[in-house]
Amino acid sequence: MIKLPKILIVDDDEIVRETLESLLSAEEADILFAENGEGGLQMAKQHQPDVILLDVMMPGMDGYETCRSIRAIPSLAEIPILMITALDDRESRITGIKAGADDFLNKPFDSLELLARIQTIMRLNRYRHIVEQRNQLEKAHRDLIISYDKTIEGWVNALDLRDKETEGHSMRVTQMTRRFAKLVGIAQDELEFIRRGALLHDIGKLGIPDSILLKPGKLTEDEWEIMRRHPVYAYEWLSAIEYLQPVLDIPYCHHEKWDGSGYPRGLHGEGIPLPARLFAIVDVWDALLSDRPYRAAISEREVLKYLKQNSGKHFDPPLVDLFISLRK
């Protein structure tokens, strides 16, 4: 059901009220009336009109005082007010502007001019509301994105607390992958997807039993079979969340290899999504630079040599060359 705009007419003269009602009868609007300033103020509070036609010369609370009172109420402060007055001097208009009037119309008024003024002021107010609503939606969207990102960071922290061996790894590879992706020329709006995907790359390990994930020695073949399920777990969990569907490439495919010997699907070459190919290089680079219980860290020079040796096997050759140039 379409909500009709509300026009509040505040005038102590019954003939003027009836005249205005007649003139506005063709407008698709709800017409409301008040006979004095006090009544107009109460009607404005109760009905929140879209525009107010306000007489100036009224007994008791005149139009100026009524206008000031309306403007003093936050919920009414932005309602357009069109003052209708027999006063046509400069001082009266200045007083009206200071009181908060948006426009003026002199009595006796021209019906066509009145309609044009009302339509214009209501249209401008409608545009203002549209802009406000758009700004509110944009702010709500930004707040929601921040909330989502905080949730992602919470998941990553939970994984770090569980797997002390790789603590801090997710944050380091995320920063480097974003730099690398930017160097490759990936569009700005896609960099955020890559950042989130890098943060969540090992989220599937939350589904791996502690006895396997935290085992200090080498894994058996059966244990490796379970460990290799973590990209599938990541896909199954994240794909159910619409917001995270654009970030799936890295969590799902970062263990695929250029020659097709990776997991979980055995993708090869450019069949592996570009974000996953980028990340695979950074992931191994950071892992080899870090101490692990089963081996000591090696120098970056040795790491870059290892990446070059595995170019065309594990890694995308042109990307390896680009990454090495980034590190020199």
Notes on the protein architecture:
The chain is α/β, with parallel strands linked by helices and 328 residues long. The protein has two domains: 6-135, Response regulator (Rossmann fold, 3-Layer(aba) Sandwich), CATH 3.40.50; 163-327, Orthogonal Bundle (Hypothetical protein af1432). Helix content is 55%, strand content 7%. It has 14 helices and five strands. It has a five-stranded parallel beta sheet with strand order 2-1-3-4-5, with helices on both faces. The chain is rod-shaped, with a radius of gyration of 34 Å.
Helix content: 55-70%
So what's the overall shape?
Answer: rod-shaped
Tally the helices.
Answer: 14
- What is the CA–CA distance across the termini? 66 Å
CATH level-four homologous superfamily name of the largest domain: Hypothetical protein af1432
Indicate the mean pLDDT: 86
How many structural domains? 2
Strand content: 5-15%
pLDDT below 50 for ≥5 consecutive residues: which ranges? none
Structural class: alpha/beta
How much is the radius of gyration in Å?
Answer: 34 Å
List the helices and strands and how they pair.
Elements: E1 6-10, H1 14-23, E2 30-34, H2 37-47, E3 51-55, H3 63-71, E4 81-85, H4 90-99, E5 103-106, H5 111-162, H6 169-184, H7 188-199, H8 210-213, H9 221-227, H10 230-238, H11 249-253, H12 274-289, H13 300-309, H14 317-327
Parallel strand pairs: 1-2, 1-3, 3-4, 4-5
Features of the shown structure:
alpha/beta; 328 residues; 5-stranded parallel beta sheet; 2 domains; Hypothetical protein af1432; rod-shaped; Rossmann fold; single chain
